[in-house]
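Homework help board

Subject: predicted structure for assignment chain

Our instructor gave us this sequence and asked us to write out the predicted structure in token form, then describe one feature. I got the tokens but I'm not sure how to describe them. Can anyone check?
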Amino acid sequence: MRSTWIERRALLRIQHVQPIQNVLRAPLIAIAVLMAGCATHKDDLLSHGDRTMRDIWDQETGGGSGAGGVATGGGAASRQLMDARQVLRRPLTAADVRAIPADNTAYTRTAQNEIYRQFRRLPNPDLVMYVFPHLAGTDPVPVPGYSTVFPLYQRIQYAMPGERVEDY
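My token output:
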């Protein structure tokens, strides 16, 4: 049995309407999800009760300092934690205080020592030139003799990292 032109036309309408419905469906779902997200309150999602961060810390570390610095936590575990902390809180000796600047300068990176260590200046000797007394200008004006210093090369040259820079 052959389909009539009416049936074919109805089938074309259905095929034409379905993609439009699919295109409209995605934005509507996205809008609905966004509206649901905006409708909730942060305290409903992230309720923490009356506990503060200090309470959580004290609970997770086995107790902590209560009033007057006395441990309020669970006995032996709390005492063990306090002993470990006390070992780490030793005072610096006078020798430690004197050694700190010397120890730090050996490995501390600053902009200045990075530039000077990685990019050393190549030798550029200074030349001293003596200018004899002379007359200068359109009206001959006497200029006394003087010395001036200038580098051999016009620009300062830098070595690449690892390049040999000893005096030649």
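Reply (TA_rk): Your tokens look well-formed. For the description, you could write something like this. Strands lie at 126-131, 134-136, 141-143, 146-151. That's the kind of observation they're looking for.
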